[in-house]
Amino acid sequence: MSDKTYEYDVLVIGSGAAGISAALKAKQQGLDVLVVDKEPYLGGTTAVSGGWLWVPGNKQGVAEGDTREEAETYIRALAGESYDPDAVGTFLDLVPEALDFFENDADVEFHYPETAPDYQMDTPGARKSGRALTVKKADGRMLKKNRLRVQPYLHTYTVFGYMPEIGPDIATFIKANRSAKAFLYVTKRLVRTWAERGLFRRAFTRTNGNALMTRMLASAGAMDIPMWTGTKVTEVLKDEDGVVNGAVITGPRSGTVRARYGVVIAAGGFSGNARLRTQAFGHDPRGDNHFTPTIGHQGDSYFLAEPHGGVLDTRPHQPASWGPVTVWKNLRGQDRIFPHLRAFGLPGLIAVNRKGERFANESYSYHDFGVEMIKEDAGERDTFGWIVADRKAMHTYGIGYAKPWPLPAWYYKKVGYLVEGSSVAELAAKIYVPATALRDTLEEFNADAALGRDVKFKRGSNWFHHFKGDMEHKPNPNLAPIDKAPYYAVKIQMGDLGTYAGLSVNGRSEVVASTGEGVPGLYAVGTAAVSVFGGGYPGYGANIGPAMVFGYQVGRDIAAHAAERAGGLQPAASRNGGR
After folding, report:
1. How far apart are CA 26 and CA 13, in angstroms?
2. Between residues 170 and 510, which one has the greater pLDDT?
3. Phi/psi class of residue 416: alpha, beta or left (left: φ > 0; alpha: ψ in -120 to 50)?
4. Which residues lie below 8 Å from residue 213, measured CB to CB, with a gap of 6+?
C-alpha cells in the first residue's frame, strides 16, 4: 500500500444503483465525488438484475389514482410486525423528487408499463399497475470510454447472449418456436447481438438492469465522476472528533482517500458471506445451504461499519429477498447458477418437495415462493425441491436455463442441469422421490389444470400470476396438465437477490451505532442498509427502488449534514433503533 492521499468531498463505496445515485446527486450539487468498487466491473448486482424500481407515488400511479394510504396499507400488510412507519414515510416522501432528478438531471429514461402487478395482488392496497417502472433500452456507446466497464449480464440468464426485457420482449421470445413472426423477431436480435459482440467485444443494446446502469454510469462519466474498479476499501477512517472522513484503499491506486463530507457505503449485502449467513439465515446454519447470484455481496458493508459501532439489523421477518436457483458445473467444470424468477408460473410446470408433493403456489413471486420453500424444509439439512414438467412444456417453454425446441436437450442433461425420465416412475427414481406420491401429485394437478383451476393453491387466480404466465394459453395462463412423456425435472435450491437485513440506519441513512446514535459522516444505502419493507417484497424492483431513492437522499443532504456539524448541531438520533 502506498502513502498517497486523494482528496475528495464524498467517497462512495460501490457502483450499483444505490452508490451511483448518491454520487450523481452529490456531484450535481457541486461536490467532488469519488466512486470505488472492488469488482473489476462497474454496476454491481443492479447490472445483472431486471432493472425495475418499485416506487409508489410516481407520476403514472398518481395519474391512475394510486394513493399514499393504499401504498402504506399494502407495505404494512407485507411487513407485519417489522413495519417501520417512519422509514416508509420517508421513502414515500422522497419518491417524486428522486424520480424527477433521475429523469430530468441524470438522463435516465424510465418506461411506465401499462401492467406491472404488485406481487401480492390479494393483499389490501395492492394495485395492478402504477408502482413498478423500468428503464428503456440503452445503447452502450453512450458510455464512451466506459463501454466495456459495465458488469456483463449473468450469462445463464441470457438467450444466447441477448437479455430479453420483461414484458412484450420476453413474451415474444417465449413464442419464437410457435410463431414465424416471433421467430423472425428473435433471429434479428440474436444476429445483431452476435455481430456486435464479434466486432466490438460486447453488444451495444443494453436491457433491464444493464440498461439502467448504462444510463446512470453514462451520466456519471459525463459529470466527470472518477470511478475506480478493482479498488477495495479496507478501513473507514475517523477524525479526532469521531467524524468519518475517509478510507484506506488498495488496488491500482492504493493509499488514503480523504472525504471531508463523508463516506457512503453502498457495497451490497452479505449473502455471499457464509459466516454472516449462519447468523441471519435460519435455513443456513452451517453456511453451505445457500447460493447467491449477487455480485460482490461478501459483507464488506458490515465489516467496514462494524469498527465504528455499526450493527446488523436483523428485524426484517425475512432477512433477504429470496429467489430459488439451480446450481451446476458446465463442461469445463465452472460453477454456474440460474435464478428461477419467472418459469414457475408457466403452464405445465410444477414444483415438488423431496416427498414428491406440491408445497406452494408456483405462481407466487420468487420471494414468496422462497419463503414457502424454507418453511417446507425447516428442520431438514438441505433446502431444495424440483421443478417437474412434461414433453409439452419442455418443447414449448423449456425449463429455466434449459431452452425449448428446436434446441436439443442433451447438453442440459450432460451437465446435470436437467433430469429426464421416460415415465413418471423413472423420473421419480432419478430424483429420489416416491414414485406413487409423484404420480398422485400429477394426477391431482392434471385434473384441475384441465379445467383451468388449482383448488389446492389457487395458482393462476390473479393478475400477478397471469403476468408471469403465458397470456395466450387458455383457459388459464398458468395451468396445463403434465401428462406427456418423457418427463423432466430441475433441482432448485435457495438463493437470493440481495439481503433485507443490513446495517441499522436512521432517517438520514446514517449508520446507527450500537449506542443508538448516528455515526457522523457515515452512510449506508441499498442492500448495505436494512430494508425499508421489513422483510416483505412488494413488487418488481423492491431492491432497486429504495436503493435509488435513499441514494438520492444521501447525495442531496450530505453537505448539509456536514454544515450542521460545523455549526455545532448534533446528527439525527436513531429512529426506533434504526431503519
Report:
1. 14
2. 510
3. left
4. 16, 17, 20, 42, 43, 44, 46, 47, 150, 151
Q: What is the per-residue pLDDT for 568?
A: 61
307-366: pLDDT as tens digits: 999 999 999 999 999 999 999 999 999 999 999 987 678 999 999 999 999 999 999 999
Helical ranges in 11-84 per DSSP H:
17-28, 59-63, 68-79
Q: Find, among 62, 547, 528, the residue nearest to 265 by Cα.
A: 528
Cβ-based burial of 296 (10 A; exposed 0-12, middle 13-18, buried ≥19): buried
Q: Are 476 and 495 in contact (CB under 8 A)?
A: no
For residue 537, count other CB atoms closer than 10 A to its CB.
27
- Report DSSP letters for 64-105, one per residue: TT--HHHHHHHHHHHHGGG--HHHHHHHHHHHHHHHHHHHHT
Q: Which of 167-176, 389-398, 490-499 has the lowest mean pLDDT?
A: 167-176
The pLDDT assigned to 574 comes to 39
- Return the closest-CA partner of residue 472 out of 59, 160, 115, 179: 179
For residue 232, the surrounding DSSP H or E stretch is strand 232-238
The CA distances from residue 443 to 357, 397, 483, 507, in Å, are 11, 21, 9, 53
Can you name the residues that pair with 312 across neighbouring β-strands?
503
Q: Give 418-427 pLDDT, tens digit per residue.
A: 999 999 999 9
CA nearest neighbour of 297 among 280, 272, 326: 272
Q: Which residue has the cell 420468487?
A: 366
**Which of 48, 38, 41, 44 lies closest to 19 in space, CA to CA?**
44
Mean pLDDT across the stretch 278-297?
97
